[in-house]
What we know:
The chain has 393 residues and is mostly helical. It has one domain. The protein is built from 22 helices and two strands. It has helices at residues 3-8, 13-38, 42-45, 57-61, 74-80, 91-94, 98-102, 106-114, 119-144, 150-160, 163-170, 175-185, 190-203, 210-215, 222-250, 265-279, 287-312, 319-333, 342-348, 350-359, 366-377, 382-389, and strands spanning 47-48, 66-68. Strands 1-2 form a two-stranded parallel sheet. Helix 13 (190-203) runs parallel beside helix 15, helix 17 crosses helix 20 (350-359) and helix 18 packs antiparallel against helix 20 (350-359). The longest helix is centred in the middle third of the chain and has 29 residues, at 222-250. The chain is globular and about 60 Å long. 44% of the residues are buried.
Amino acid sequence: MTDRGLLDRPLPRWTRVALLLLCALIPTLYVARQYERRHDLSPIICYGQFFAPRQLPEIRAMHPAIGSFLGFDGQFYVQIALDPTLRRPDLADAVDSLSYRGQRILLPALAWLLGAGKPAAIVVVYALLNLAFFYLLLGVLTRRLPVATPRGMLVLYAILFTTGSLVSVEYAMTDLPAATFAVISLGLGEVSAGILLALAMLTKPTYGLFLFGRILPLPAGWSGWRRRVLLVLLALAPVILWEDYLLHFGTGQVVDTTQFTLPFVAWARLAVGNWQALLHAAPGSTWLMRADAFFQFAALISSTVQAAFLALRPRLRNPVWIVGVAFAVLLFCLPEKTIIDAEGYTRTVLPLAIAFNLLLLDVRAPRRFLALLILGNFGLMEGLWEMLFLTAT
């Protein structure tokens, strides 16, 4: 049988079911392992020692595990979830930048709602939200991709197990939920898509880039313009109203804006730095340090391959391609403070990885498909490596 036949030959039903269950089981077992170690889910939120003295009283009373010196962003969002109106005076001290974090209000508000306003329940719900969105994205992709074949199943795994997706689950970030809302919106009409994009932007503002995928190419007739205007209004109105609340009734501060740099400047410095770190690892480096150096270097290669693939195969009328290009541009314009490590920027440009792998389905030549699949994803397996072999502390 040819390679093409192997990639597109229908998988037995029991194989499909087993692979989909395995896909859901890996992050589930990771989360369960964190609970088993502490009998709570604080390792997922990853509180930092530096910010521990500034925690809200309700959080301190839970005696959460300290994950590292600085911790991760989830420690701030879970405290916002205790009061999503942002009116508590002590929030400004507990959160590193309340005006910036406050823009991403949807997950904290959802945790508050599902936790019925009770601090202990809110913390548990917030820690589990990313896992729930992982399941949701798995379900959506299962319906939209040809997972009955090895080709479709490979693309499904590449999207869900990319570093940007799994790091969001591991540390209770906002990236995977925002990506889930945005990806679902691509297959819906203007009204539904506008609402979902509003939710995505209230989860992470950079997902406003998905609007390009719905606006372009510009329509020729009045009816097309009317539909696009309706979509943009539905998407932007809740975000604008919330921004106005932040300015006048919430934080009382000017909302921070994302900073960018000249194209390729920070990217080039990171490439050189990662290459030198890989070549000149200290003689006493542990295997974990060497593995991290490899993944840091390989992640930049894979992300660059993804961007190059989109640039060399233009699909000007394809919304997935348009979104992927928008996030590829974002990758090359990120400042050094954002692109400093793979765990950070792969989350930020997660839609680039999603778009790349979705568009790989159009590459019918089997060897080319497999080569691109490997080159575009091999460096983005750090999240899976951590989830399988390392345990949050």
